[in-house]
Amino acid sequence: MLRDGDTKKYWIYQCTFWFLFAVIPFMGLALWYGDYEWVHIFHIFLQAVIGLVLSAMLGEVYQRIWKMPLMPRMVLVVISAAFINVLWTYLRILTFIWLTGEQHIWREFGGWYFGAFYIYLCWAAIFHGIKYYKLLALEHRGRLREAATAKEEVFRRLKAESIARDAQLKMLRYQINPHFLFNVLNSIYALIRLNEPDKAMKMTKQLGRFLRYSLDYDPGQTTDLRQEIESLNVYLEIEKTRFPDRLIVTYDIAKDAENAKLPSMLLQPLVENAIKHAIADSETGGSLKIRAWVEEYKLCLEVTDDGPGIPIVKGQPVLGQGVGLRNTIDRLKTLYEDHCSIVLRAVNPSGLKITIQIPFEKA
Q1: Domain ranges in the chain?
Q2: For 118, phi and psi rounded to 5 degrees?
Q3: Rounded to 10 degrees, what is the CA torsion of 195, 196, 201, 204?
């Protein structure tokens, strides 16, 4: 009894209803009375065809008033059924007179009308029953899709956390390897030999803080940009002690970006990569600039160095064997899919600029 989305089913329901309407009186007439005339049988099926056509018109009316409030719609349902039934009763009597020639039948109009009225009320009830059943089925399928989407989201988050934890382990192996520890411990030893125990103690504490933070942070959680910068400074304190006159770090953090959410320790691998390739290998050192701002509902992060940069082939940067940039790219793609971007650009006269865009969300 529906007109939206499935015309074939609608007409199957329609024909089934009116065929049963014709068959039931026919069976009653044939089995109960035994003796019947074919003209009456023909009239039974003819009035079913007329009822089918009129019910199709009624279905169009019900479809148009479907979005009305319930009570006014129910009133219109009954009124329209009553009106269509007047027309159906008139046509039934008219065709009966045409087939049988019995003129006195007009006196029985009321009996024909009220008996038929219940048929159209039944039709209207079936129409609305199927309509509500379809809506319930659609809602059920929608909830199943939502459940499937939620499961997919959980799986995606678990996968992101797994990749992030793997990236954390790689980061630790990359950072806290013998070469890294040798450089830091050698710097501490040099400070002791130079009779600067305060600086040596300070650097030892900085190394301890960095190791503790690196081991404690949860890669599956997010943090705000302010805390991210604070944790980044823990790492930079060590590097500034190693390169006191060769490392210059500047920040340009927009006010509206300070409370933005982002994955924990997102900037640290990028900064470390810049220090390793742009500053540590340079006799004169270098500078880092870290920017953050909000633009068109996106959190924009930028790390720029003035080192030698990286090769650009056909407009695309050629990544080396390091894991910092690769892990960051994989982590962002897993967390945000197509809703993020990471762009590497060469800086004139030398250097590299890394720009990240992720959806902006306040912590």
Answers
A1: 7-149, 217-359
A2: -65, -30
A3: -90
User: Which tokens is 164 given?
Assistant: 């992030």
The pairing of strands 352-359 and 341-346 is antiparallel
Q: Supply angle C-alpha 119, 90, 8, rounded to 5.
A: 50
The pLDDT tens digits for 3-33 are 445 677 778 878 888 887 777 765 655 555 5
Q: What tokens were used for 352?
A: 């590299």
Number of helical (H) and strand (E) elements in the chain, helices listed first: 9, 9
- Concatenated DSSP letters of 113-162: HHHHHHHHHHHHHHHHHHHHHHHHHHHHHHHHHHHHHHHHHHHHHHHHHH
* Contact status, residue 292 vs residue 333, Cβ threshold 8 Å: no
Give the model confidence (pLDDT) of 297-354 as tens digits. Answer: 999 999 999 888 776 665 565 665 456 677 788 888 878 888 999 998 888 888 889 9
Distance CA 270, CA 282 (A): 18
pTM: 0.51
Rounded CA-CA distance 274/271 in Å is 5
C-alpha distances in angstroms, 219 versus 33, 266, 301, 335? 85, 9, 18, 11
- Please give the CATH architecture assigned to the domain spanning 217-359: 2-Layer Sandwich (3.30)
Q: With CA atoms as reference, report the closest residue to 1 among 132, 117, 116.
A: 132
**Rounded distance between C-alpha atoms, residue 231 and residue 171, angstroms:** 15
Output the average pLDDT for the chain: 80
Helices 38-64 + 109-175 axis angle, to 10: 40
